[in-house]
Every structure is written in structure tokens, then in C-alpha cells.
Write a structure and sequence with these properties.
The chain contains 13 helices and no strands. The protein is about 85% helix and about 0% strand. The chain is mostly helical. The N terminus is likely disordered. The protein is elongated.
Length: about 290
């Protein structure tokens, strides 16, 4: 069993190295479509991190350092290896899936928190840009000067935007690349406004003021909706925690009851099915609450 596990780990490490090697050997971007998708910051990513993991984290709104990503990957592999060594196959498989689910939920919650902080800072940042534009400052310098008064996720995003501009992209292209990386529709709106202004002219200050107004109205609507659906969210939380509380209570009051079920073939299958249904129900309720 140990040698099988070691072989699986070596195979996984080899797959990661193979993906990294293919990414390094990929030819330079050519053609209009590839030029549009070209991101000069992509060349600075670590070649040891698979591209699908970077894209996954970007979709969640997380821009982690390569060292942090490597620590997370190694930690996940070590925990899965320990589960395979300490538990039976079916239990280890279920526990590994639960570990991956918990990791995904935790990363998504962290990403949503980062996106929320970015959206809270964006209207005031665009308002500062608009004020500098009214004073006669150029668009690029207005964004650069306004970065001095921001912090948090928006500051990191704006620094990446300005790095792309310094590497040769237009301002609207830099915002578009950042919007794709973070999955932020708001930054894509800013990119579209800048592109329209560069291509057709007009008052970019008026457009930015309208975007600020729309963002604040959207934030107000989300807050009102969250307040009105608070009862639904609490109900979903109670329904999710109730089976876990019941199994914890039964285990504390009569541990032999659960152990007898586990050592029986039928009881073991019933427990695995119940745990799987519990996870499926929790995920379904969580997605329903997110859709509100």
C-alpha cells in the first residue's frame, strides 16, 4: 500500500513537471486572436505552477504568490497521503473528497472577500480619477496618481495594470487583462469605457462618473437583497448543520452504536451513503443561497 501511494505521488509530480515543460516549450503568440489574449505578466509566473491551477485561483479572485501556491499543493498532497495511509480505501476516498471540497470552499470564501473589498474601494478610486481628470491631468497619469490613496486588493490590481502598461499594453488592454484574470465585470466595464474614449473620443470623466453611480446603486441593491434574504440563509445553515449535530450527539452519547454500524457491511454502506448525501445537500443549499 505504501509503495502504491509513493508511486502515485511520483506520478503526480511527474505530471506537474510535464505540464510545466509543455508550457515552457509553447511557441510565441502569433495571429490576431493570440495577440488579443497576450498578457505580458504571464511570462513572470513560475513555470513550476500548472497553468490550470493559476487559472482556477484567478477565477476565484485570488492572486497568490508562487511560493504560497506550492505550499498549498504540497500540503494537500501530504494530507491526502496521510489519509490513504491511516484509513481504509473507501473512507480515505471520502475523506480526500471532503478535504478538497473544504479547500475549495475556503479558497472561494477568501476570493469573494477579496472581490468584495475591491468593489468597495473601486467607486471612490474612480471618483478620485475623475477629479484629477477635471484638473487637466491625462488619463494614464490620473490613474497612476490616484493609486497613492488606495490599499488592499484594488491596489494590487492597479499595480498589475500599470505594470502591463509599462510593458507595452494600452490602458484599456491592461484593464481587460486584469478583469479576465480576476473575473471582475466591473474592471471590464472600466476597460470598455477607456476603449470607447480612446477610439471615439468624448468625455471620459462623465463616463467614469456614471460608472461610479451605477456601482454604488449596485452595492446598495446587494445590501438590501442580503438583508431581505437573511432568514433564508439562516435556514440553509441550520439544515446543513443539523445532521452533523445529530451524529455528533449520537456519537458522544453512545459511541458503540456508530462503531457497530461501521463494522457491519450494511451499516458501513449506509453511513457512506448518508455522508455522501449530506455533502451533496450542503453543496446544493450553498449554491442555492449563492444564487439569491
Amino acid at each position: 500500500m505504501i509503495w502504491i501511494l509513493i508511486s502515485l505521488l511520483i506520478a503526480a509530480a511527474g505530471a506537474v513537471l510535464l505540464l510545466a515543460g509543455k508550457k515552457e516549450e509553447r511557441p510565441a503568440a502569433a495571429g490576431k486572436k493570440e495577440d488579443e489574449d497576450f498578457d505580458p505578466l504571464a511570462s513572470k509566473r513560475s513555470r513550476w505552477i500548472p497553468e490550470f491551477i493559476v487559472n482556477y485561483l484567478n477565477r476565484l479572485g485570488l492572486n497568490l504568490q508562487p511560493s504560497t501556491i506550492m505550499v498549498l499543493m504540497v500540503g494537500e498532497l501530504v494530507l491526502v497521503a496521510l489519509l490513504w495511509l491511516m484509513l481504509e480505501f473507501s473512507v480515505a476516498l471520502l475523506a480526500a473528497l471532503g478535504l478538497l471540497l473544504i479547500t475549495h470552499v475556503g479558497l472561494q470564501a477568501l476570493g469573494n472577500h477579496q472581490k468584495q473589498k475591491l468593489l468597495q474601494s473601486l467607486p471612490s478610486f474612480l471618483n478620485q480619477v475623475s477629479r484629477r481628470l477635471s484638473a487637466g491631468v491625462s488619463v494614464e497619469h490620473a490613474f497612476t496618481d490616484s493609486m497613492e490613496n488606495i490599499e488592499g486588493p484594488l491596489e494590487l490590481s492597479m499595480r498589475r495594470v500599470m505594470q502591463r502598461v509599462g510593458l507595452g499594453l494600452e490602458l484599456h488592454q491592461a484593464f481587460e487583462r486584469e478583469a479576465r484574470a480576476n473575473g471582475s465585470k466591473e474592471l471590464l466595464i472600466v476597460s470598455t469605457a477607456l476603449h470607447i474614449n480612446e477610439q471615439f473620443g468624448g468625455s471620459i470623466r462623465a463616463i467614469l462618473d456614471d460608472i461610479v453611480h451605477i456601482l454604488r446603486l449596485d452595492d446598495l441593491g446587494k445590501r438590501e437583497l442580503k438583508a431581505q434574504t437573511g432568514e433564508t440563509r439562516i435556514t440553509a445553515l441550520v439544515l446543513t448543520l443539523l445532521p452533523l449535530s445529530m451524529i455528533t450527539l449520537l456519537t458522544s452519547m453512545n459511541p458503540d452504536f456508530i462503531l457497530q454500524m461501521w463494522h457491519d457491511s450494511l451499516g458501513k454502506n449506509l453511513l457512506i451513503i448518508a455522508a455522501s448525501l449530506q455533502v451533496l445537500g450542503a453543496v446544493s443549499l450553498w449554491r442555492m443561497v449563492r444564487a439569491i
